[in-house]
Amino acid sequence: MLNVVIFGAPGSGKGTQSERIVAKYGLNHISTGDVLRAEIKNGTELGKTAKGYIDQGQLIPDELMIDILASVFDSFGESKGVIFDGFPRTIAQAEALKKMLSERGQEVSVMLDLDVPEDELMTRLIKRGQDSGRADDNEETIKKRLQVYHSQTAPLIDWYKNEKKYRHIKGLGTMEGIFADICDAIESV
Ligand code: AP5
Ligand code: MG
Question: Where does AMP bind (predicted)?
Fold first, then answer.
């Protein structure tokens, strides 16, 4: 199985590139952000809890997120592999993912780090906030999301380097050009 972690700051293009990876390689896609937004839309208890964190630009607690991840993963059954989009976001989540996969005889194949300068991230997310109105795409919340990324999520870069799974992807440029670099990285593993 091909298990890909697509990694990057808010607005780096994880969701955009995941769609292309799914179409080309036939993987199942887990976006933890999409899962949480669906729960909010459906008004579930989990959605109510998640909304409090998302609106503040903060992460949902690890234990909760890890349980959700495992249940979505197991719902796929037979699969060519999975693309993990927005998970892991903390060292504890990375360790839990490693453990969950190894209990199922699997591992992460590659971690792709979409690297995009901060001013471009801000421009993309402000624009998306104006066009489609994701509740957390306003300047104040975007700033908090970026702070959380730097303090809690960016340490995973060294963690995956240490695991020998890390691939740097230049995330600035056309969506097609970035996707071509992603395909090269995937096909090299
Ligand atoms: P999540 O939904 O994962 O949001 P995010 O990480 O902030 O990232 P985005 O979805 O905003 O950006 P993206 O990288 O997918 O980029 P996209 O392709 O959309 O998480 C939301 C919240 O949920 C978190 O803050 C947290 O509260 C909670 N959460 C989620 N997972 C969690 C976890 N594991 N643990 C705890 N809490 C969790 O692109 C962005 C925009 O740029 C789009 O408009 C797109 O069209 C455009 N774009 C893309 N590529 C390009 C390009 N090459 N050039 C120009 N524009 C581009
Ligand atoms: Mg996304």
Answer: 32, 37, 58-60, 86-89, 93, 134, 145
